[in-house]
Structure formats: C-alpha cells, structure tokens
Amino acid sequence: MMNVFRNVALATVAIVAGSPLAGAADVGASVTITGEISPGVYGRVDIANKPRPPLVYEQPMFIERPDTAGLVEPLYLHVPPGHARNWLKHCREYQACNRPVYFVRSAEYEPGYEPPKPAKAKKRKFRSGF
Q1: How far is CA 120 from the centre of its chain?
Q2: How far apart are CA 94 and CA 67, in angstroms?
Q3: What is the pLDDT of residues 74-116, one digit of tens each?
Q4: 125 in any annotated domain
Q5: Are 63 and 101 in contact (CB under 8 A)?
Q6: Residue 53 belongs to what domain range?
Q7: In angstroms, rounded to a whole number, what is the distance separating the alpha carbons of residues 76 and 70?
C-alpha cells in the first residue's frame, strides 16, 4: 500500500514540476506521408523523385511571402478540405505560413465523398459462471 502511495506521489510531483515547461514550449506533432495518400491521414507529403501528385490548386498558396521568394522549397501537404479552403486560419498548425504550399488532392475532395463509418462493435452476451 505504501509503495502505491509513493508512486502516485512521485508521478504527481513529476507532472506538476514539468507542467510549466510544457506550457512554455510550442508542442506539436508532424506526419510525413511517404506512401499512398489516403483520406483521414494528414501531413507533409514526401514526393522525393516521384512525379508530382494531383493537386487541389495549380498555384502554391502563400500566407506570408518569404523574403527569399523562389528560393524556398515548396511543401506538399495533404490537409482536410476545410483547411485548404481556409488556409490563413490553419497554416500555423502545419508550420507553413511562410512557405509556398501545394495541397495534394485525395478522394476527400471529390463531390459526394462520404468518410467511412466506423464499424459497430458486436454486442456480447455475458453469462454468469454460476
């Protein structure tokens, strides 16, 4: 019992001590998509030596033009359609406000697309062992 209390106390101290640091840092996660673009998976698309994927818009999107226009490598991003339409609101989530961005097209951009519905869990009947 004492061991459990000590572990809980140590975990609480670690969380309280680390929380100011977590608030000070700009915490974010990024995803690089190297395979096939699929709905629901968003992030940077690494095209490497592959042909350019189908794009939502032919021209790159800029929010803040970089000082070195033309010398900055463009980003290829797969984002939800709403993010592409309102890029000013969402560019900071992708750390891409000062970069030219091409939005990669996927099935989500097609008219009539409906995301797959999650499979319903089967109801299980529990029997008593008595």
Answers
A1: 25
A2: 19
A3: 899 999 999 999 999 999 999 999 889 999 998 888 888 887 7
A4: no
A5: no
A6: 44-110
A7: 15
